[in-house]
């Protein structure tokens, strides 16, 4: 079964940090929950686990968490 297409999330700037993007996209409500999910390895960026909350995302990057995917748009 194919994964659904990622939902585009316009961020209004060239770059955004992973933790900020997850909160902005509504993936999780609190910064503490975001930090825990990232550190525990539940978050993928472009198909690979990334444990860096401060990772800089650019337009086109896809963040996946709990089966939902979101694509960074400028």
Question: Layout of helices and strands, plus pairs?
Answer:
Elements lengths: L6 E4 L4 E3 H7 L6 H9 L3 E3 L2 E2 L6 E3 L3 E4 L2 E6 L1
Pfam family, one: S4_2
GO molecular function, one term: RNA binding
Keywords: RNA-binding
Q: Which secondary-structure class do the elements indicate?
A: alpha+beta
List the total number of helices: 2
Q: Might you state the CATH topology name?
A: Structural Genomics Hypothetical 15.5 Kd Protein In mrcA-pckA Intergenic Region, Chain A
| Main sheet: strands, sense, barrel | 5 strands, mixed
How big is the Rg? 11 Å
Mean pLDDT: 95
Count of discrete domains = 1
What general outline do the C-alpha atoms trace? globular
- CATH architecture annotation: Roll
- The strands making up the biggest β-sheet line up spatially as 1-7-6-3-4
CATH class equals: Alpha Beta
* Ends distance: 30 Å
Question: Helix and strand string, N-terminal first?
Answer: EEHHEEEEE
Helical content (DSSP H or I, runs of 4+):
10-25%
**Annotated CATH homologous superfamily:** RNA-binding S4 domain
Low-pLDDT runs: none
Q: In total, how many beta strands?
A: 7
> Into which percentage range does the β-strand content fall?
25-35%
